[in-house]
C-alpha cells in the first residue's frame, strides 16, 4: 500500500512539473503570450504572426498561445510574471518595462530619433539588439520591437502649432517621470491620471487634453471631447516582445534561432497593420470635423525638451550616443 501511494505521489509531481514547464503530454512545448490589446489590434496581429511562424518552423513542437485582451493581467503584473516564469511570454510597452530594466528607459526620451526611418534602422540593427540584451540581467529576453506610433497632443481649447501654445493647458500624462517632465518642458501642466478617466475629465473640464497616438485618440472617443490634435511626435516609445529567461534557457539553440527569426519577421507584419490603423483613424478623425495640425518644423519642439536631456541625459548618455551614430 505504501509503495502504491509513493508511486501515485511521484506521478502527480511529474504532471505538475510538466505543467509548470509548459510542456504538453505529447512533449509539445506550449508558450503562453500575454497581450493586453484586442484580438484585431496591430500588436496582437504581430503576436499571432510570430506564433504561426514558430509553430510552422518547428512542425508543431512549439506552440505559442496568444492571450489577448488583458486576459493574463495588466502590463505591470505581466512583466513580473514573465520574470518569475509563470507566464512564458508577453508584449509590453517599453515605458512600464523601464521600471524593471533601467537601460531600456532611454527609449522614453523625447525626440530620441530624427525620423521614423532612422528609428527603425536603429532598433532593428545592432544597437537595438544590444539594448534588448540588457534585459537579461532582469530575467527577461527581448526578441523584437513593435511600433507604438508617435504621440501627439490633443485638447478641447485651441490648435497647438508650437510649444508656447501649450502654456496654461492641463494635459494628462502617463505615470512616468520622463513623460511628466517632457510635457512640462513643452509648456503645459502635466497631470498624471488613469487612462480610463481621461474622457470624462476632458468632458468635465478637469483637464484640457492629453497626449497619445492617432489610433488611441480615435478608438477611445477622446476625439469627441478634444477637437484639436497636433502631430508633434514628442514620444515614439516602442513595444517589446519578451520571453522569460527561464523558458528561453530550456530551448535548444536551434529553437532559439527560430524564435528570434519569427519575432523579427513579425515586426514587419505588425508595423504594416499599425500603419493601416493610423491611416484609418486619421481619416475618421478628419471626417468628424476635428482640427488637425501637422507639424513640419520640429526644431522648436526639440529645443523645448532640452531640460529633459539635462536631467536624464547623463544616465542614458551611452545609449543616446550609440543611437546618434546610426545614420
From TrEMBL:
Protein name, entry field: Tripartite ATP-independent transporter DctP family solute receptor
GO MF, one annotated term: carbohydrate binding
The organism's place on the tree of life at top rank: Bacteria
Keywords noted in UniProt: Receptor, Signal
GO cellular component, one term: outer membrane-bounded periplasmic space
Signal peptide: 1-21
Pfam families given in the database record: DctP (PF03480)
CDD domains the record matches: PBP2_TRAP_SBP_like_3
One GO biological process term: transmembrane transport
Amino acid at each position: 500500500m505504501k509503495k502504491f501511494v509513493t508511486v501515485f505521489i511521484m506521478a502527480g509531481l511529474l504532471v505538475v512539473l510538466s505543467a509548470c514547464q509548459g510542456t504538453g503530454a505529447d512533449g509539445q512545448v506550449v508558450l503562453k503570450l500575454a497581450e493586453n490589446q484586442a484580438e484585431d489590434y496591430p500588436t496582437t496581429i504581430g503576436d499571432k504572426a510570430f506564433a504561426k511562424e514558430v509553430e510552422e518552423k518547428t512542425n508543431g513542437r512549439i506552440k505559442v498561445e496568444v492571450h489577448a485582451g488583458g486576459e493574463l493581467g495588466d502590463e505591470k503584473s505581466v512583466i513580473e510574471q514573465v520574470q518569475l516564469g509563470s507566464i512564458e511570454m508577453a508584449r509590453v510597452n517599453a515605458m512600464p518595462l523601464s521600471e524593471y530594466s533601467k537601460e531600456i528607459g532611454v527609449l522614453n526620451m523625447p525626440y530620441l530619433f530624427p525620423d521614423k526611418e532612422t528609428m527603425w534602422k536603429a532598433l532593428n540593427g545592432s544597437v537595438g539588439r544590444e539594448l534588448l540584451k540588457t534585459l537579461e540581467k532582469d530575467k527577461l529576453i527581448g526578441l523584437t520591437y513593435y511600433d507604438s506610433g508617435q504621440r501627439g497632443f490633443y485638447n478641447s481649447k485651441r490648435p497647438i502649432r508650437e510649444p508656447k501654445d501649450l502654456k496654461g493647458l492641463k494635459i494628462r500624462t502617463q505615470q512616468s517621470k520622463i513623460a511628466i517632465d517632457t510635457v512640462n518642458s513643452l509648456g503645459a501642466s502635466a497631470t498624471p491620471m488613469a487612462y480610463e478617466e481621461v474622457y470624462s475629465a476632458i468632458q468635465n473640464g478637469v483637464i484640457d487634453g492629453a497626449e497619445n497616438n492617432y489610433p488611441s485618440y480615435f478608438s477611445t472617443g477622446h476625439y469627441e471631447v478634444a477637437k484639436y490634435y497636433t502631430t508633434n511626435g514628442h514620444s515614439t516609445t516602442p513595444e517589446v516582445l519578451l520571453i522569460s529567461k527561464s523558458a528561453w534557457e530550456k530551448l535548444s539553440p536551434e529553437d532559439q534561432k527560430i524564435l528570434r527569426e519569427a519575432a523579427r519577421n513579425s515586426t514587419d507584419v505588425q508595423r504594416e497593420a499599425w500603419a493601416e490603423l493610423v491611416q484609418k483613424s486619421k481619416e475618421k478623425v478628419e471626417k468628424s470635423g476635428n482640427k488637425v495640425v501637422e507639424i513640419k518644423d520640429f526644431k522648436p519642439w526639440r529645443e523645448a525638451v532640452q531640460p529633459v536631456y539635462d536631467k536624464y541625459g547623463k544616465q542614458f548618455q551611452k545609449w543616446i550616443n550609440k543611437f546618434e551614430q546610426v545614420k
